[in-house]
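TL;DR need structure tokens for one chain.
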Amino acid sequence: MKKVFALVLALTMLCCSAAFAADTDIAILVPNADHGWTGAVMTYAEEKAAAVNAEGTYVAQVITSADPANQITQVEDIIENQSANTVVILPQDNTLEVTMRRLADSGIPFVMFDRVIDSVSEQAVASVKGDNEGIGAETAKRFIEDGMVPGDKILIIPGDNSSVPQMRNDGFFGVLLENGWTQEQIDAIEMTAYTGWSRTEGHRLFTEWLDSKTVEEIAEYKWIFTHDDEISMGILEALQSSEIDAEKKDAFLAAGVHLASSSGLNEFYSVLKGIHQRDYSAEVAGLADLFTVTYDPAMIEDAIDDMIAHLNGEEVPKDHVIDVQVVDATNVNDFVGFGDAVAAE
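>> reply
TL;DR here they are.
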């Protein structure tokens, strides 16, 4: 009889434990991608979810979306059907704003990662991101240290219409203002259309930009601030293509361009190390400087940890900013990039 009672008690405790875990599950919503920074975010999210589930206290599920409309549908489902009790989300873009306000009003705790929807940031458990303003600030500081002066020609090749590029530009412009630039000079800085963080779009927009300039105009641009390593890789690939007029390519590489990037793509690190399968040595040699600023996709794990800490009743910093570092050929071996290796050490 005691054995039967013990078995019933054990089964009851097991059922209660399973119900508790299901009642506190974490939906992790990220864009679907098989490469680049977003692809690495998805991989890290899946690895973290597996670790959370193995630990057994909470149930975590990664839900990927193909586009903003798809992600909006996913969030609406969570709100309407209570299919998750908490949400960690990397919003596809700012078109999620209305839906995120609905999520905030629903009372479901949420953590935003990377792209922050400002109108709901105060209602979020936390907003976890790399120091986007720091990326812009560190880029501007390096340009200034290397000789950039107020009024110099600058080209910015941005990511998308979310808060991320805005913050990177704000950090960049803020340092310029602190160093003698006028608002009129800043307003005159040239910017391409959004790349959508795409290497292909970076390649296309850079090629179109060169096509739109004369050789004399190209020689005036010595400072290029891209918002992502994929965009910079697109530029390097464009410089090796037959699409660019040879005279314009020579003018660009003779101008002494300082090319700035960000994120930490392993392929970009391979270029800095000089070990890329595709030989970019001529293009790199033609640049006055080539560097990137870290923005680690593994930060998604910090976002999930913040939600777990909240569920555990711990205090969580509402504005969780993770420091950035400048990476160039002199220190690249001290950093681990994300994405597939493209050449052996």
